[in-house]
Specification:
single chain; alpha/beta; TIM Barrel; eight-stranded parallel sheet; pyridoxal phosphate; PyrdxlP_homeostasis
C-alpha cells in the first residue's frame, strides 16, 4: 500500500470515528471538547502514528511495552501524549515511565509504589488511572469496585504520580451501557474524594457511543481508526 493510500484510509477511519463521537455527544448534550480520542496503535507501525499525527491526533495508546517504547522513540519528535493502557508488570515500570504520560492500568498497591518511585527518580509526573474490574476477572486486570477508593487514595498520596480518575473495559457478554453506568458511579465516588480526578477512560471501537452517554472522557480506539489488526512482527 502506498503512503498516500494509507493516509487516505486512516483519514477516512478518523472521519467516521469523529462523526460517531459527534452524534453521540449530540444525543446526550455533551461537547466534543469534553472527550480525548486515544488512537490505539498496537500492532501498527510507527508510520501509521505519524500519519495520525499529521491528521491532528495528539494522543496515542499502547498496551505492550516492548512495542510502545520503540514506537515512542521513533515518534519522539511529534510531541504526542502517550498512554499506556495494557496490564503493567512492575519490571516494566522503568521503561514505561520513560515515555508514557498517562498509565491507565493501575490496579494494585505494589504497582503504585513502583510507579511513584521511578517517576520521582527521573523527575517526571505521570497521570495514573485506577483500572476497575467490572467483571471480576483478574486475568483482564483491574481492581474490584469496592477496593477502588483505597487504591485511589494510595495514588493520590504518592509522589511523582497524579490521580487522574478511572478506567475500565466493558465485560464480555454484558450490555456496555450497564457496565459504563456502574463505572460512572464508581468514578463519582473517586471524584467526590479527589475533585481533580475527573477522567473516565472507557469506550473502544464497538462501544464508543455507550461510553460517551455514561460520561467517558477518554476513548481508546484502534480498529475503527486503523483497520483490523495483524499479528505484530518486529
Amino acid at each position: 500500500m502506498t503512503e498516500t493510500t494509507r493516509r487516505d484510509e486512516i483519514a477516512a477511519g478518523l472521519a467516521k470515528v469523529e462523526a460517531e463521537i459527534a452524534e453521540a455527544c449530540r444525543a446526550v448534550g455533551r461537547t466534543r471538547r469534553e472527550l480525548t480520542l486515544i488512537a490505539v496503535s498496537k500492532t501498527y507501525p510507527a508510520s501509521d502514528v505519524r500519519l495520525l499525527a499529521e491528521l491532528g491526533v495528539t494522543d496515542v495508546g499502547e498496551n505492550r511495552d516492548q512495542e510502545a517504547s520503540a514506537k515512542a522513540r521513533e515518534c519522539a519528535d511529534l510531541g504526542l501524549v502517550w498512554h499506556f493502557i495494557g496490564q503493567l508488570q512492575t519490571n516494566k515500570v522503568r521503561s514505561v515511565i520513560g515515555y508514557a504520560d498517562v498509565v491507565h492500568s493501575v490496579d494494585r498497591p505494589r504497582l503504585v509504589a513502583a510507579l511513584s518511585q521511578e517517576a520521582l527518580r527521573v523527575g517526571r509526573e505521570i497521570t495514573c488511572l485506577v483500572q476497575v474490574a467490572l467483571d471480576g476477572d483478574p486475568a483482564r486486570g483491574g481492581v474490584p469496585p469496592q477496593d477502588v477508593p483505597a487504591l485511589a487514595e494510595a495514588v493520590a498520596g504518592s509522589g511523582g504520580i497524579r490521580l487522574g480518575g478511572v478506567m475500565a473495559v466493558a465485560p464480555l457478554g454484558e450490555e456496555p451501557s450497564r457496565a459504563f453506568a456502574r463505572l460512572r458511579e464508581i468514578a463519582q465516588v473517586v471524584r467526590d474524594a479527589h475533585p481533580g480526578a475527573d477522567a473516565i477512560s472507557a469506550g473502544m471501537s464497538g462501544d464508543m457511543s455507550q461510553a460517551i452517554a455514561n460520561g467517558a472522557t477518554h476513548l481508546r480506539v484502534g480498529t475503527a481508526l486503523l483497520g483490523r489488526r495483524k499479528p505484530f512482527v518486529r
